[in-house]
Write a structure and sequence with these properties.
CATH class of the largest domain: Mainly Alpha
Radius of gyration: 30 Å
Helix content: 55-70%
CATH superfamily of the largest domain: MetI-like
Shape: flat
Number of helices: 13
Largest sheet: 2 strands, antiparallel
Length: 334
């Protein structure tokens, strides 16, 4: 009974039938994927033997995706060297892209119309042409510019002279091409982060006597990082996989190493799985780093940072433990 004499209100928890159906479907699909990946199937090969004078034959059971061959080549020196080249290209290309992208974003937001137009044209060109075409162009740069000189334009005064055919390797050309292409995308990401900062922050910095450069370095960029970090992490992961295009111009990266091996032994699917598993492994590590980096820069915008995977696991275990305790106590009462 309540205080006014009415019957007590019975509280009934909401039943989420749609969620239960979704969980059931997801579990069935997960079980099917596990079964098709890790259970053996009958092959066309037949094995026969005599048992008590009777010939008995049966089909040999094999892995559908030949995991035994995957394990055989997963840590070979060719694959590991290709992985190191892939990581090197990713780091160098992203370093070039981030540096160039931030510079282009500042130029794009500059009140100087010449700088703004130059940044826009650069972004328009490199985003509008396929990255594979750009890699092919930079790989054969010696055809168009056999000699690269640095000096005073339109004069014969030269400070540095470089033979592009001998000094620029295909690896360096690919890193440069990937970095220049990434700079166009990073410029838009950085520009979105910069314009997300409230104008009142810039006005307050100006009223304190800060110059435009000080405002950008001390006020705008630190606040824009919260917006810039998530898409930048996605760009790093995308760049990791985009480096596979360099195998078309002769650089033996991770995919190129796998291609060379299966071209000799014709084990195409297992070697592609080896490359894919390495890409997945590195992507997982990068995703974890991205999560903690986002969590750090979100401290000033959120009242409480998002829980880590370990904290979520502990909370789930606590929920299961409490539910189990409640069921046990209820059964004892009955």
């Amino acid at each position: 009974m309540t205080t006014n004499g009415d019957d007590a209100v019975r509280v009934v928890p909401v039943r989420h039938y749609g969620r239960w159906v979704g969980v059931a479907v997801a579990l069935v699909v997960f079980a099917m994927v596990v079964h098709t990946l890790f259970f053996r199937v009958a092959s066309a090969k037949v094995s026969c033997r005599l048992i008590d004078g009777v010939k008995s034959c049966h089909h040999l059971m094999v892995w559908r995706f030949q995991w035994n061959i995957v394990g055989q080549y997963f840590f070979t020196s060719e694959i590991l060297h290709g992985l190191l080249r892939t990581l090197f290209l990713t780091v160098v290309a992203m370093a070039i892209g981030i540096t160039l992208g931030v510079s282009l974003a500042v130029m794009r937001l500059s009140p100087n119309r010449v700088l703004s137009i130059v940044a826009w044209v650069y972004t328009w060109f490199f985003r509008g042409t396929p990255v594979l075409v750009q890699l092919l162009f930079w790989s054969f740069i010696g055809l168009f510019y056999p000699h690269i000189t640095i000096g005073i334009p339109f004069t014969h005064v030269t400070f540095v002279h470089i033979n592009s055919n001998t000094s620029v390797t295909v690896m360096e050309a690919c890193a440069l091409g990937l970095g220049l292409n990434e700079g166009a995308y990073m410029s838009e990401i950085a520009r979105a982060g910069l314009i997300s900062v409230d104008e009142g922050q810039i006005e307050a910095a100006t009223s304190l006597g800060m110059t435009r450069r000080q405002t950008l370095r001390l006020v705008t960029i630190p606040q824009a990082m919260r917006v810039i970090i998530p898409p930048t992490g996605n760009e790093v992961i995308s760049m990791l996989k985009t480096t596979s295009l360099v195998s078309t111009v002769g650089v033996i990266d991770l995919l190129g190493a796998a291609t060379n091996i299966y071209s000799a032994n014709y084990e195409i699917v297992p070697l592609l799985l080896v490359a894919s598993l390495w890409y997945l492994t590195v992507t997982t590590v990068l995703s974890i780093g991205q999560f903690y980096l986002e969590r750090r820069f979100a401290r000033g915008a959120l009242r409480s940072p998002p829980p880590t995977p370990l904290q979520r696991l502990r909370a789930d275990l606590a929920t299961v433990r409490n539910s189990t305790t409640a069921l046990v106590s209820r059964s004892r009462r009955v």
